[in-house]
Design brief:
This protein is mainly β. The chain is built from no helices and 32 strands. The strands form eight sheets. It has a four-stranded antiparallel sheet with strand order 1-32-31-30, with no helix packed on it. A four-stranded antiparallel sheet has the order 2-3-4-5, with no helix packed on it. Strand 18 and strand 19 form a beta hairpin.
Length: 402
């Protein structure tokens, strides 16, 4: 039987409501016009909410279902929900005992990596490094790779966090730890067989992305102390640039503007690089803008993000120079998930508020603000026209625009 694995960036056609991986179809937070309301509603009402357990993995939507990876300690749980009703279509559980670093006990135990849906399957990567392929229709386990022996979870703040990536017909995952080093694997998505392996520094908590620099496809990711680029065909390292962090907290997913690779962290500030086939040259650095956990989006020649300064400031940086174009006064939140629609910047802060702001303005101009949850919202939402999929502390809900 031939199983075809494709994503939108390789030419597949997704239905308007599909949001199949971390940060959406193109892995960049961009929302297609078909998924944007013609006018933002006056309010949202709850259509349904389903308890699934704790965790920070973002929900994904594919084929009329919502898939979410969660935890009811000591098990991890994978749930498929009917998009229309919130009813559980199938649910699978497996043992994943995890002892957190004592400095991070206030946070949930994950999972952190967002699932990926492709080719009739859902791929999940748990906090201890258990990678599983599930049949999207039935929940049957198709195959599993257990990388937990390669990871010293006691030293990690969050455990495994890099969301799986599909590129050139291969499923790419990043695992490892500070003490045991890091690995990236390219797997056959149909069988789980390993196609290539890269070995290097332990991972940060960011997720890998694919960029096209000068006609050359590259997988770019962060380790605990560097930026690394790999050839998707064979896993060969194309280049590496230092990006050290005292606490090994490189969390923000790299952002590609089309000309610059932008990375940021709490102690390093925000950097941009011009990328060649075999190297990266720093184009600018803004030490005053420090993005801790929140990945920015790019549009209008700007980088829109949340700096950790002043207890959370929304900021806009010039994408070519790094100059600060505007910032808010602070106290916006500890975390923000950013979506970019054709006309607006949509921001979900961890306190449960969703903000719709105008794009391309000389300042942050909020047009709508909604309270969408009563408990913390650390995961990225999914915009479905006038409706939203939102994950709170222990559940997933669909909100209908009124």
């Amino acid at each position: 039987m031939l199983v075809l694995f494709t994503v939108v960036t390789s030419g597949a056609v997704l239905v308007a409501q599909d949001w199949p991986q971390w940060r959406g179809p193109s892995r960049d937070g961009a929302v297609a016009a078909a998924n944007v309301p013609s006018a933002w509603p006056a309010s949202f009402s709850r259509a349904w909410r389903t308890d699934v357990g704790e965790g920070y993995a973002s929900p994904i939507v594919s084929g009329g279902r919502v898939f979410v990876h969660s935890r009811t300690d000591p098990q991890e749980v994978v749930t498929a929900l009917d998009l229309a009703t919130g009813a559980i279509v199938w649910q699978q559980r497996y043992a994943a005992s995890f002892n957190k670093n004592s400095y991070a006990t206030s946070m949930a135990k994950g999972p952190n990596a967002t699932p990926l849906a492709a080719g009739g399957r859902v791929f999940t990567l748990g906090v201890t490094g258990i990678l599983t392929a599930w049949d999207a229709a039935t929940g049957r386990q198709v195959w599993r790779q257990d990388y937990s022996s390669r990871i010293d979870t006691s030293k990690l703040f969050c455990g495994t966090a890099a969301s799986p990536l599909l590129v050139s017909g291969a499923l790419v995952v990043q695992v490892g730890s500070d003490t045991k080093g890091g690995q990236m694997f390219a797997l056959d998505p149909a069988t789980g067989a390993i196609r290539w392996t890269w070995t290097g520094l332990g991972p940060g908590y960011a997720s890998p992305v694919v960029i096209d620099a000068g006609g050359t496809a590259q997988i770019v990711t962060l380790t605990e102390g560097s930026i690394v680029s790999l050839d998707p065909a064979n896993g060969k390292q194309l280049w590496s640039a230092p990006f050290p962090d005292d606490w090994h907290e490189n969390i923000v997913t790299p952002v590609w503007t089309g000309t610059h690779l932008v990375v940021s962290a709490q102690r390093q500030g925000t950097h941009a690089y011009v990328i060649g086939k075999t190297g990266a040259t720093q184009a600018w650095r803004n030490a005053a803008v420090t993005m801790y956990m929140s990945t920015p989006v790019t549009g209008d020649g700007l980088i829109y993000g949340l700096s950790s300064k002043q207890r959370g400031q929304f900021v806009a940086l010039d994408a070519k120079t790094g100059d600060l174009k505007w910032s808010t006064g602070g106290r916006e939140g500890e975390h923000a998930s950013f979506l970019l629609t054709p006309a607006h910047l949509v921001v979900l802060v961890n306190g449960g508020d969703l903000i719709v702001a105008r794009r391309g303005s000389a300042a942050f101009v909020s047009e709508k603000r909604y309270t969408v949850a009563e408990s913390p919202t650390w995961a990225m939402p999914v915009l479905l026209g006038r409706d939203l999929i939102v994950r709170d502390a222990t559940g997933v809900m669909r909100l209908a625009g009124k």
